[in-house]
Amino acid sequence: MENNSIETDICIIGGGVTGASIAASLGNTGKRITIIERNWEETDRIVGELLQPAGVHMLDKLGLSQALDNIDAQVVTGYSVYNQNKAIHIDYPLTKEMKPGLGFRNGKFVQNLRACLKAYPNIQCIEGNVTALHYSSANRIDGAVFLNSNGISVQVHAPLTIVCDGIFSKLRSELTTIPHKVTGFFAGLILDNCRLPHPDHGHVFITDTSPFVVYPVASGKLRMLIDMPGEVPPKMQDGLIEILKQRVWPFLPDSMKQSFDSALQNEKIKMMPNHKLHPAPAKIGGVVIIGDAFNMRHPLTGGGMTVAFTDVYRLSQYIKKHLLEGRLLSEEKYINDFYSDKSDETGVINILADALYNVLRQPVLSHACFSYLQQGGDCATGPISLLSGIERNKGVLMKHFSAVAKHACTKHNQTMNRTDIVKEAVRIIRPLYLHENPVWHHKLLLQLSLPFISQHK
Ligand SMILES: Cc1cc2nc3c(=O)[nH]c(=O)nc-3n(C[C@H](O)[C@H](O)[C@H](O)COP(=O)(O)OP(=O)(O)OC[C@H]3O[C@@H](n4cnc5c(N)ncnc54)[C@H](O)[C@@H]3O)c2cc1C
Prior knowledge:
Layout: E1 5-7, E2 10-13, H1 17-26, E3 33-37, E4 50-51, H2 53-61, E5 74-76, E6 78-83, E7 86-91, E8 101-103, H3 106-118, E9 123-137, E10 140-148, E11 153-157, E12 160-163, H4 172-175, E13 181-191, E14 201-206, E15 212-218, E16 221-228, H5 240-248, H6 254-266, E17 270-276, E18 287-289, H7 304-324, H8 333-360, H9 363-374, H10 378-387, H11 394-411, H12 418-436, H13 440-455
Parallel strand pairs: 1-11, 2-3, 2-12, 3-9, 6-14, 12-18
Antiparallel strand pairs: 4-8, 5-8, 6-7, 9-10, 10-11, 13-16, 13-17, 14-15, 15-16
Bound molecules: flavin-adenine dinucleotide.
The site of flavin-adenine dinucleotide has 38 residues, from helix 1, strand 3, strand 4, strand 9 and strand 17.
């Protein structure tokens, strides 16, 4: 470091799940990589603790599956869905190639990912807080400015900057065109010495107030995430413990109640905002934005890390191909290619997450969704293959979404008339679909929704 400036080839901002994995996957290009992370210590977070099978698969493709070793990761082979004391158990459609999902503590996993990148001598890890992007002209970024641990401002110059400063990104407003939106909160608890009624399964509880999910994250430890809708989450002094008790206790299997009570008594409750952020890049050269800084969806389906690893894989492939063709990092067709293909690979995970959350918040649709899954066969394996990230076809998602709406019209129409059910279903799915693919999916949406709209007028 000279004169408080660093010359490098690739500057990566943020060393979380996305930043650490893109750095590690580019390590073998031989390029000088500088990664700036404000805290390299292990952290205790409630995010990113269930990796769906397709995420495990992507990590394998990235050559980073050793990050899952020695963290007491727990196998997850499917989901159990509870609704009014009834339960259904659906297994992932696993194959030799597609292995089970895994639950783990996020901090341990991130430290393992970071160990993968630290193995490369051409990767320089810096502890610092990035305060700004550095512009070489109005439409071109050539690095970033950060404050190091002594509070000194340092400038990094690079032909390519990769921004992955995550959920609370301070840099995204310059690099994206659609603002992010808070869609509610998750309260997170750890249940100790607790076994799930259906071991090795993620559990989703559908209730009339707010859904909650539970999955294993270490031996004898379960993560519970409870939906807290609204713009401001309740605080301890607002009676948070009582609210959580009312929303969860009546729906919990007896075997889990004691651990839940102890977790509440310990008052170790963490609250996180849930966001919706459609991926829409601004046209600025020299930079690419990826991970939660760029794209977020409701965490109910545990799809965030699968999206992140899918995008990391795609971006690293584009960069490597570009370099093999002897091109410069500053010629950026590869960045445009990365953005333009994104929805084909990750659009389904984005749409499903927010659509399912909204369905579970709507009593008629949520009961219809449960009884649709109860039918088994393709009605159960289709949706779970979408949730696991194995199936990425938007048409398949649309087929099951329409079928759930139809099912609500025929089986659950005592409390809501059919036209209102259809309107509600279209209100949920339409904006999600249009954001992912503005032109031809609009036509597809019409095609798929017309049959049940006309049938149930
Ligand atoms: C409540 C909740 C539960 C979730 N559960 C799941 C789940 O079970 N499964 C799943 O797949 N996904 C889940 N997600 C989503 C998942 O957590 C994210 O997709 C994933 O963490 C994204 O990783 P990231 O690296 O892009 O961002 P982050 O995890 O936010 O990491 C960003 C990194 O950048 C660093 N950083 C930020 N600003 C700066 C700065 N200015 N200078 C230097 N460094 C900086 C941070 O310290 C951090 O290390 C959940 C999300 C939420 C909100």
